[in-house]
Write a sequence for this structure.
């Protein structure tokens, strides 16, 4: 009986041991699956962040059009009143149910709702406390609800969404464009620098922490090498937490890696017949001439999930001086156009197709009613034809929101 019990106990222990072993194997399988998933995700993230190089022949013009890559999703007619007259739009920011718009011909910021109805304006131009001389750039935060105006005098002025002045800060250098980082710091680009701390460089992309101390930067060629116009710089912008900019003397888009606090080259455009000059191989005579006329300068307009939209400009030439480039990131093919100025499918003239805060990665363009009035339409039911009947020449611009097409 004792022997039987011992044998039974031994079998029970063995069974339980097998179950434990099976459970351990099961756990290891789960761990393996989890780690495999992590590795796959890391691999995917690395693939997403790897450097992409695009070969481009600027002489080979495409037969496609803007509407082959982007699809019209939303039309917003901005209400025209005596206080809300807009000309060319400088920047559009979307926050919650409002649109904040700065223009080239208005000293303040005009606020509309998402349907385009004019609400009010913030105009603090002046020389007194809480006032600005001229808006160079404007940023938006939703929590807290603040507008941050960068004044050409080098100051940041913070207002609430109703226009009440909150506080101000100051930078030590002229900034062309600025974006706000999640930790409260700044991502900035600098044109020709005038202060001693930046005098050794021609064009800089820099990041600062919340205290305003610069922590990283990508420096372009030395200022003594070349002669360039002061404002000949790329836009700096963000899309869904990714930040981009192009140094003026490179055909390379840099992305700011927030985790590592550094800029890295992300997309390189190798232009056939128009290479970027190599500073180490230039003669003294070549260094002194304004090389801006010898190759194309890029201006970044939009970087989406599937496409990159750029403007390439070359001074001193009449033919092909302004080109539009649309790159399919998957195939790495770049379509080259004469400056795209219309959506042919919807018969809409286009201005400044840019990427703006608050539109979740969409392309934001606008059209002028005056141009619609002067246009002859082939389709009486097209979007452009309908708008021309609803608006007059004095109407405000119409916002056009495009999304990327899934396949081209």
């Amino acid at each position: 009986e004792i022997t039987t019990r011992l044998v039974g106990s031994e079998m029970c222990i063995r069974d339980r041991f097998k179950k434990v072993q099976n459970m351990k194997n099961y756990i290891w399988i789960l761990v393996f699956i989890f780690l495999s998933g992590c590795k796959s995700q890391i691999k995917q993230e690395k693939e997403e962040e790897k450097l992409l190089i695009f070969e481009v022949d600027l002489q080979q013009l495409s037969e496609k059009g803007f509407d082959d890559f982007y699809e019209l999703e939303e039309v917003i007619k901005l209400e025209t009143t005596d206080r809300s007259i807009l000309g060319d739009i400088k920047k559009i920011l979307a926050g919650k149910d409002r649109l904040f718009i700065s223009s080239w011909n208005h000293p303040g910021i005009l606020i509309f709702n998402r349907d385009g109805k004019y609400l009010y304006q913030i105009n603090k131009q002046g020389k007194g406390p809480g006032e600005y001389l001229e808006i160079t750039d404007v940023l938006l935060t939703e929590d807290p609800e603040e507008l941050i105006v960068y004044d050409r005098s080098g100051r940041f002025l913070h207002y609430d969404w109703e226009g009440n002045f909150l506080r101000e800060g100051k930078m030590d250098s002229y900034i062309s464009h600025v974006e706000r980082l999640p930790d409260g710091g700044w991502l900035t680009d600098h044109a020709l620098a005038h202060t001693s701390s930046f005098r050794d460089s021609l064009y800089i992309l820099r990041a600062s922490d919340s205290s305003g101390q610069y922590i990283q930067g990508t420096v372009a060629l030395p200022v003594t090498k070349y002669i360039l116009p002061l404002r000949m710089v790329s836009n700096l912008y963000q899309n869904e937490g990714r930040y981009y900019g192009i140094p003026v003397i490179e055909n390379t888009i840099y992305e700011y890696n927030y985790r590592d606090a550094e800029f890295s080259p992300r997309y390189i455009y190798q232009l056939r017949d128009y290479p970027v000059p190599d500073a180490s191989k230039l003669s003294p005579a070549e260094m002194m001439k304004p090389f801006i006329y010898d190759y194309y300068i890029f201006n970044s307009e939009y970087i989406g999930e599937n496409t990159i939209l750029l403007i390439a400009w070359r001074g001193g030439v009449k033919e092909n001086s302004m080109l539009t480039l649309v790159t399919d990131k998957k195939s790495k093919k770049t379509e080259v156009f004469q400056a795209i100025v219309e959506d042919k499918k919807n018969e809409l003239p286009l201005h400044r197709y840019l990427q703006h805060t608050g539109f979740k990665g969409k392309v934001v363009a606008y059209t002028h009613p005056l141009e619609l009035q002067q246009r002859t339409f082939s389709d009486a039911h097209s979007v452009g034809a309908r708008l021309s009947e609803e608006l007059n020449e004095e109407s405000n611009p119409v916002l056009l929101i495009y999304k990327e097409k899934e396949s081209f």
User: Anything to note?
Assistant: Residues 98 and 113 are 4 Å apart (CA to CA). The chain has a mean pLDDT of 79. The longest strand covers residues 262-271. DSSP finds four helices and 27 strands in the chain.
